[in-house]
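Long-time lurker, first post. I've been practising inverse folding by hand and with some scripts of my own, and I keep getting stuck on stretches where the structure tokens seem ambiguous. Below is the full token string for one chain I'm working on. Before anyone asks, I'm not after the true native sequence, just a reasonable design that respects the backbone. If someone could post their per-position residues I'd love to compare against what I wrote down in my notebook.
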């Protein structure tokens, strides 16, 4: 199991991509797993001390298809802050072609792909600089939740199309937002009146249930509030037609069935509430801003054991401490608030794995600080110095861009991309697929 609260005595699960030698005479795995295993093998054979971030493009494309299947009438504006890897942005500019940004550099990155791509500037509290940039680059949709924001927008981007952000409370969400952004319906009415006085154009309502939401019911209550806000806007004479249901969708792939079930029931509940509260009248449009959903399970990080110590406690219990070549200040993000930690999988052949003793284990990051601990007190197979471990489900809000953590001369992680033949064939249907060429060494073999 990945990304759940660690408990004592937890045993590592059998790896999905168990590493096998090419010469192995065991029954071959399916084509995709075989190819992925070869990629891992290549990383290991390179014998480098640099961590490697592996993007599984199949997974990302699969998510895109799942979204379209489950919520075909809701247009996903990919939340760029979740992962700004150049290939992710490139793929999204080919697949969903719509983006949600919250900074100048995010806007710039998207427009560098194609300056006609629709962008929603989703941050309800922006600097003057961002608003000016949005004006200059024709970013039309802006979000607000306060009088001061309306004043800034009136001054720097008076022709913007505005969405009012509703306040949502989700006690189960991994990042509670209800105090940071948004208005309730009563405050919203006053703000809309002010927008009217300032001659600004409000075209929509938005909310964000908080990342990693676990309660599908939250969408129902939010949609009910959104309906009320919509009607208030219409009563005040605005042409309100855009509903933005934000992000918050879980990001696992089908390995974790329970979270897939959450996504499915969210989709069902959203579709049902939309038909209750926003019956189709031809004018309105519904969009969302999923981030984690698309990228979380698409990334794994391959790290190497660069140090190993055996520590015996006072009651003679033995514990193995590994030091790896990556850090929580690098790409291995640990969510401090809710204790989510990436869980390790050994990269070992199946036969090898069976022979390993299971030990109580600590895994430490490469920086000297005591807080750079990735896993504590887990049960894990005994590994050797120089062997490799992989952390899966690392794609959302991973931090290869926190470059300051590499200032001490450490090399940044390498990035590798994986796409199976099936996915390559699928991507070839899109006009701009040849722009993917420089991400794949073997792109010529795609044809
Ligand atoms: C306004 C807004 N929309 C969408 C998202 C994306 O959330 P998630 O990655 O959970 O889909 C965020 C995340 O912080 C956000 O702040």
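-- Answer (accepted) --
I ran through it position by position. Result:
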């Amino acid at each position: 199991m990945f990304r759940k609260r660690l408990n004592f005595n937890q045993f590592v699960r059998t790896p999905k991509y168990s590493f096998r030698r090419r010469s192995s005479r065991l029954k071959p795995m399916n084509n995709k797993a075989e190819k992925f295993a070869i990629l891992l093998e290549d990383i290991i054979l390179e014998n480098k001390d640099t961590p490697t971030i592996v993007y599984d493009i199949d997974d990302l494309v699969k998510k895109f298809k799942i979204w379209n299947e489950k919520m075909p009438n809701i247009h996903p504006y990919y939340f760029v802050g979740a992962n700004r890897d150049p290939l992710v942005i490139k793929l999204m500019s080919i697949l969903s072609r719509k983006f949600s940004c919250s900074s100048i550099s995010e806007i710039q990155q998207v427009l560098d792909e194609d300056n006609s791509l629709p962008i929603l500037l989703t941050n309800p509290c922006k600097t003057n600089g961002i608003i000016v940039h949005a004006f200059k680059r024709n970013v039309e949709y802006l979000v607000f939740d306060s009088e001061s924001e309306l004043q800034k927008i009136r001054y720097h981007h008076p022709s913007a199309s505005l969405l009012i952000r509703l306040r949502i409370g989700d006690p189960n969400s991994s990042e509670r937002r209800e105090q940071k952004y948004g208005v309730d319906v009563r405050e919203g009415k006053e703000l809309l009146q002010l927008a009217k006085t300032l001659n600004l154009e409000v075209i929509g309502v938005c909310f964000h249930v908080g990342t990693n939401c676990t309660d599908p019911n939250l969408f129902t209550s939010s949609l009910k509030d959104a309906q009320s806000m919509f009607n208030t806007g219409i009563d005040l004479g605005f042409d309100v037609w855009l509903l933005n249901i934000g992000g918050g969708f879980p990001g696992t792939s089908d390995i974790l069935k329970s979270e897939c079930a959450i996504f499915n029931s969210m989709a069902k509940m959203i579709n049902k509430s939309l038909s209750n509260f926003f019956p189709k009248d031809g004018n309105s449009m519904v969009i969302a801003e999923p981030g984690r959903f698309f990228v979380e399970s698409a990334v794994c990080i391959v790290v190497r054991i660069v140090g190993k110590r055996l520590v015996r406690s006072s009651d003679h219990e033995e514990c193995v401490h590994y030091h790896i070549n990556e850090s929580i200040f690098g790409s291995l993000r640990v969510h401090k608030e809710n204790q989510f930690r990436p869980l390790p999988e050994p990269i070992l052949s199946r036969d090898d794995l069976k022979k390993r003793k299971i030990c109580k284990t600590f895994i430490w990051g490469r920086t000297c600080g005591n807080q750079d601990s990735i896993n504590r007190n887990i049960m894990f197979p005994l590994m050797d110095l120089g062997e490799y471990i992989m952390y899966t489900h690392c794609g959302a809000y991973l931090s290869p861009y926190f470059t300051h953590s590499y200032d001490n001369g450490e090399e940044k992680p390498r990035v590798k991309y994986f796409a199976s033949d099936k996915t390559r064939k699928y991507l070839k249907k899109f006009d701009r697929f040849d722009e993917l060429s420089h991400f794949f060494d073997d792109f010529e073999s795609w044809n």
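A couple of notes from the structure itself: Residues 79, 82, 100, 122, 208, 211-212, 246-249, 289-293, 396 surround pyridoxal-5'-phosphate (CB under 6 Å). The chain has a mean pLDDT of 86. Happy to go over any region you disagree with.
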